[in-house]
């Protein structure tokens, strides 16, 4: 069987970067996406001993940039077997009455519309090749709503709905569609949520053993390596210390 190629959004950090490393070790060629080109270049240099790596720097909110980048991929990277829709973040943690409308825009534009723009460029390729695998990174925040999570939770509930919608609409095209929904994972996520306030960000993961990006990468690799007729439609994963968004066994 010939080697597969995966396009990973949000590959400059956290879950996306860990998945890129995991895929490279296991012979999956890579198209790495993110805004921070320097980080993409460093990762490419690290991984291209194992597999072919191409980088694409765009903001997923920029519809025409997304389209142009994916339409103009070099020949060797035009067949995309796996799409990991991972780019996203929370911006702020506020009650709805104290919410910042710029944060709301960011979460809905990146986590929801950005995921749609990237998918819109890749789904026609998968339909034409009669194969493909789309994994959307949702969240436990897409399964329940927690205090001050309002719009972030809404964005991840949207990802849940879009995943279901994709699976329904793409049924019959031999394309697998599923979601991986992590609980708390120690990445740059909270740094972004709290706008660089490291004290606040570090506190989120203190007193218990949170998931690591590598744990999610391992699961994503498991999902993509099942027999082709097996589609893992929806997977929720939490630390043993976490029972729900608000119940975390902190010492
Ligand atoms: P990180 O902050 O470590 O990584 C986020 C990634 O998204 C970065 O690579 C960043 O790249 C990219 N990104 C953010 N905004 C944009 C944008 N506008 N355009 C393009 N890329 C963008 O967080 P995680 O690894 O934790 O998050 C990855 C996914 O996992 C997100 O969808 C998040 O919601 C989800 N998730 C995270 C959990 C956690 O607890 N950490 C739990 C459940 C789900 P760059 O800045 O270079 O553009
Ligand atoms: C990220 C997990 O609980 O911080 O999606 O919202 S949480």
Automatic annotation (TrEMBL):
<keyword id="KW-0560">Oxidoreductase</keyword>
<dbReference type="Pfam" id="PF00106">
    <property type="entry name" value="adh_short"/>
</dbReference>
<dbReference type="InterPro" id="IPR036291">
    <property type="entry name" value="NAD(P)-bd_dom_sf"/>
</dbReference>
<protein>
    <submittedName>
        <fullName>NADP-dependent 3-hydroxy acid dehydrogenase YdfG</fullName>
    </submittedName>
</protein>
<dbReference type="GO" id="GO:0016616">
    <property type="term" value="F:oxidoreductase activity, acting on the CH-OH group of donors, NAD or NADP as acceptor"/>
</dbReference>
<dbReference type="InterPro" id="IPR002347">
    <property type="entry name" value="SDR_fam"/>
</dbReference>
<comment type="similarity">
    <text>Belongs to the short-chain dehydrogenases/reductases (SDR) family.</text>
</comment>
<dbReference type="InterPro" id="IPR020904">
    <property type="entry name" value="Sc_DH/Rdtase_CS"/>
</dbReference>
């Amino acid at each position: 069987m010939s080697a597969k190629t995966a396009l990973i959004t949000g590959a400059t950090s956290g879950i996306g970067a860990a998945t890129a490393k995991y895929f490279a070790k296991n012979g999956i060629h890579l198209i790495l996406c993110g805004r921070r080109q320097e980080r993409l270049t460093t990762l490419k240099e690290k991984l291209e001993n194992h597999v072919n790596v191409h980088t694409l720097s765009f903001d997923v909110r920029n519809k025409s940039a997304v389209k142009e980048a994916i339409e103009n991929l070099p020949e060797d990277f035009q067949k995309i077997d796996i799409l990991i829709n991972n780019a996203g973040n929370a911006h702020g943690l506020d009650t709805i009455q104290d919410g910042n409308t710029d944060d709301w825009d960011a979460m809905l534009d990146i986590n929801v519309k950005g995921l749609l723009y990237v998918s819109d460029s890749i789904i026609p390729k998968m339909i034409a090749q009669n194969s493909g695998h789309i994994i959307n990174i949702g969240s436990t925040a897409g399964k329940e709503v927690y205090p001050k999570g309002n719009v972030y939770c809404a964005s991840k509930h949207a990802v849940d709905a879009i995943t279901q919608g994709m699976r329904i609409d793409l049924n019959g095209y031999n394309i697998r569609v599923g979601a991986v929904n992590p609980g708390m994972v120690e990445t740059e996520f909270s740094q972004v949520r709290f706008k660089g306030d490291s004290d606040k960000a570090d506190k989120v993961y203190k007193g218990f053993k949170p998931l690591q990006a590598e744990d999610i990468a391992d699961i994503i690799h498991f999902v993509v390596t099942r027999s082709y007729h097996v589609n893992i439609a929806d997977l929720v994963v939490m630390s043993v210390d976490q029972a729900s968004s608000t119940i975390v066994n902190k010492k």
